[in-house]
Amino acid sequence: MGGSAYTLCGDAQALAGERLRKRLQIGFVTALNPMDRRSWSGTFYFMAKALQKHCGDVHCLGPVGTLPRRAGEALWAASWLLLRKNYLYTHSPWLARTYAALLKRKIDRIQLDFLFAAAAAPEIAFLDVSIPIVYSADSTFAVVKDYYPRFTDVLGLSVRQAHHIDGMGARKAALLAYPSEWAAQSAVRDYHVEESRVHVIPYGANLEDPPAREDALRSRTSDECRLLFVGVKWERKGGPIAVETLVKLRAMGIAAQLTVCGCVPPREFQTPGLTVIPFLNKNDPAQRQKLEDLYLASHFLLLPSRSECYGIAFCEANAFGLPVVTTRTGGIPEVVREGRNGFMLPLSAGGPEYAELIARIWGDRSGYSELTRSSRQEFEERLNWDAWATSVGRLLPRVLPRRNTLNDEPS
Predict the structure, then answer these.
(1) Going by C-beta distance under 8 Å and a sequence separation of 6 or more, which residues neighbour residue 86?
(2) CATH number of the domain residue 287 falls in
(3) Are residues 366 and 254 in the same domain?
(4) DSSP output for 274-336
(5) Predicted local confidence at residue 81, as pLDDT
(6) Is 334 inside a domain boundary?
(7) Which of 171, 308, 344, 365 is the most buried (most CB within 10 A)?
(8) What is the maximum alpha-carbon separation in the chain?
């Protein structure tokens, strides 16, 4: 779904023509299909759904074709094979110009009030349109270069191109909504975007049906301290430190269990108390339910990330009343409020420090119960997509003509 500029996302096809004329018409810009929940771990899908609910009618303009990306992947493979350097084809001028041409054809066929570009700096960098662009991403290239593994060992030419494309895309937007100060400040500092156009609005939990409050806060009575690690990237998410934490807790006499979901640790990390669930597909209802059951049965989300632009998993954990124990790095401090929905340790902290922190919290059962309640409250008040879209909607009058800024029907 979403290949045609005339296709509305979600349930909008059922809307009557009169309502269509009254509500804002939003072009959702991504190179990928936002209705595919595998795209950006489902964040595109939940963004589009929230905008549809609170801001107007969302027209999916992606996907914009697979051939350009396949050509880019071939260039990346050649660069790595010959030079042992990454070529970031997604931020190359030739691909950005191709995206612009393909998107322009779709945009010209439909009347839109504004474009919403989701992590789509390359898609809008060369896009020539007269309507305002609202842009949102969880990072800039400037902050992820040499921070994320896939943005290391980058070809010099590719670094220059990526900075150029990311800067062009950011400066083209009339309004920019980043989920963290870490990313927002970079847009101003590194790409000279006017500060008045940049705003911080936290992202939400990618959950179709969050648990009811009473279910999330139901007592997790257990003598075991159950830790949950959710992530595909074992090293980047701090998997070795999570296992070290488990070992230390058990050595301290605490009956700790660690469930790793989403990846398979190397054999040397096998240890008593460790359970591994290699993969759960959120698109499959049964597997999604199993993941939700894990959240409900656990006591802490333990994710000692080495690098993290934001952390949707933290929002999801809080929806289940699950406090987070993680690292103070990247965009995480925007999600985790110390002592309210989790705790952060320095990047230098290892398993012993994480174990001591968890043991202290676990030893105060009344304090832990209060922590679960405040974790759920953080989800309800700010770490959900309704709150995000409502905040975006409040900013739209700054960039849209006055006659278009209010929908005639309540969201």
Answers:
(1) 76, 79, 80, 150, 151, 152, 153, 154, 155, 158
(2) 3.40.50.2000
(3) yes
(4) EEEE----TTSHHHHHHHHHHHHH-SEEEE--SS-S--HHHHHHHHTT--EEEES-TTHHHH-
(5) 83
(6) yes
(7) 308
(8) 67
| Tokens (6 digits) for 355 | 């174990």
User: Which regions in the chain score pLDDT beneath 50?
Assistant: 1-7, 10-21, 403-411
Query: Do 290 and 348 form a contact (C-beta atoms < 8 A)?
Result: no
How far apart, in Å, do the first and last CA atoms of the chain sit? Answer: 24
Asked if 252 and 228 count as a contact pair (C-beta separation under 8 A), the reply is no
Q: Which strands make up the sheet holding 198-200, listed edge to edge?
A: 57-60, 25-29, 114-118, 133-136, 175-178, 198-200
Report whether 176 contacts 193 (CB < 8 A). yes
- Confirm whether 5 is domain-assigned: no
Range of the domain at 328: 213-381
What pLDDT does residue 407 have? 46
At 226, list the tokens: 């159950």
Q: Evaluate whether residue 85 is within a structural domain.
A: yes
Task: Give the span between the Cα atoms of 407 and 411, in whole angstroms.
Answer: 8
Q: Which pLDDT value is given to residue 229?
A: 98
Q: How many domains does the chain have?
A: 2
Give the Cα separation of 299 and 324 in Å (integer). Answer: 9
Contacts of 394 (CB under 8 A, 6+ apart): none
Q: Number of C-alpha atoms within 13 angstroms, CB side, residue 393?
A: 23
Edge-to-edge strand list for the sheet holding 342-345: 274-277, 256-261, 225-230, 300-303, 324-327, 342-345
Is residue 163, in this structure, part of any structural domain at all? yes
- Reported pTM: 0.91
Q: What angle do CA 117, 120, 163 make, to 5 degrees?
A: 130
Same domain, 173 and 230: no
**Are 238 and 262 within 8 A, CB to CB?**
no
Phi, psi of 325 (to 5 degrees): -120, 115
CA–CA gap between residue 50 and residue 388 (Å, rounded)? 8
